[in-house]
Amino acid sequence: MPNYYDPMLDEVRNTRDKLNKVGKGFCLMKWQTETLYLHTGDNHSCYHPRPHRIPLEEIAVNPSALHNTSWKKQQRKKMLEGGRPEECYYCWNIEDLEGDHISDRMIHSNSHYAIEDYDTIKNLNWEADWNPRHLEVSFGNKCNFKCIYCCPQASSSWVDEIQRFGNHDLSYDQYGINFIKDGSYYSPEAYNPYIDAFWKWWPDLIKDLRVLRITGGECLINPNTYKMLDMLDETPAPNLDIHINSNMGMATKFVEKMTDKINKLLDEGKIGNFMLFSSVESWDKKAEYIRSGFDCELWEKNIKTYLNSNKHNSINLMCTYHNLSVRNSFKLLLDKIMEWRTEFLVTEGESRIRFDTPYLKEPPWFILPTLPDSYLDDQKDILKYIIKNRIDKIGWHGFNEMEYEKMKRVTNVMIENPFTDEQIENGRKDFYKFINENDRRRNVNFLETFPEYEDFYELCKQRQ
User: Angle at CA 107, nearest 5°, toward 207 and 154?
Assistant: First the structure.
């Protein structure tokens, strides 16, 4: 992307070089970050590896085992000894592509809260407990959406649908709800030993925590979110940044309630900073098909309500990039992003509307390499569109180099394909099955919404 350069890329590459001095699998995320699903007792330190169960016997004697599980310590050991844990294959897929690519291992380890402890962590005993600097916590899976690539563990609406219609007949168990029956799911009414351990850990955790990210399900319809914000009002943590993940698709009164509480905490200096994250990867009817429950008009109203409440507020769009993003889909969102960036003024080098494009790795029927080669031209057109509308050509409402680099790596996933032939073949078979059953269950029509994907649909049909 000539003529414009983002200096942050130099920082990320410098961090890469520091990490690689320890080993080409070393990642600070295994120590510095944590995502907790308290309703299922699962955790991981990055959203790319699948969550693993937290043993109850470990938290009974050490509440910090919510983060410092024996499993995670073994992965840390591999990293400190120069190895690459298998569960982190998302980044290895990127780093093993031909050429020089920026992986999330490098980007997230470069975060200010992560890199500052580099010297300590690289010399730490692998068995040592460590409090994360960044914690993402889910108090439950209650959600008003059932996005087609999501799962029951993260959405109560998915649970309700499967209980009504039964399991999907697919080769990959993305939507099973056996976790409800096997004792690994805690309803809001039940005693939950993981929540009990969390509050026991909290007084020690808060001493080191720099970022608290509240997620779901949909956290703005979960009372625990407001309980946490009220707690911070009573016991301020001025060095703590608060992040919230929200689908922003609920009644506007919930957005206003959250916004009022957050603005009060900021105005009174009771928290450090605030960031809002929301997911979207297309627009109009295509977005509403992909993210069942999504209403473009309501979502746009809600983000504008939030942005207008404080001129310093910003929103970060998490765009899960998959095979339905490529043809006449993601570009719809890019157009809206430029429109929103124009409406909500940006300062030089800083936008109030940001976006990220991680590629989807499961379920297999939505991975990018299931698409035939002809779709690569559409993907390259998206890259060309970003270049055409970059910052140095159209102004600060355009796209920056990091956004271009992330889209370029997604394109290379399509070209070099880190997935197996079996994953692709099963993905195509299951795409046809899933889409037909999804249309029946939700009274929608894929080919009417995505007519440009008819050739792909027919390709998948032939695999039956």
Answer: 70
Q: Which residues pair with 347 in a beta bridge?
A: 350
Taking the alpha carbons at both ends of the chain, their separation in whole angstroms is 42
CB neighbour list of residue 33: distance below 8 Å, 6 or more residues apart: 45, 46, 108, 114, 132, 133, 134, 135, 136
Which are the contacts of 82, defined by CB distance < 8 A and separation ≥ 6?
Answer: 22, 23, 24, 25, 26
Helix (H) or strand (E) holding 261: helix 252-267
Rounded to whole angstroms, the Cα distance separating 162 from 151 reads 10
Residue 283 DSSP code: -
Which tens digit of pLDDT belongs to each residue from 37-49? 999 999 999 989 9
Q: Using one digit for the tens of pLDDT, what is the confidence trace for 149-208?
A: 999 989 999 999 999 999 999 999 888 888 777 777 887 778 899 999 998 998 899 899
Rounded CA gap, 351 and 395, in Å?
11
Q: Nearest to residue 366, comparing CAs of 149, 176, 217? A: 149
Give the span between the Cα atoms of 135 and 35, in whole angstroms: 6
**Contact indicator for 338, 386 with CB cutoff of 8 Å:** no
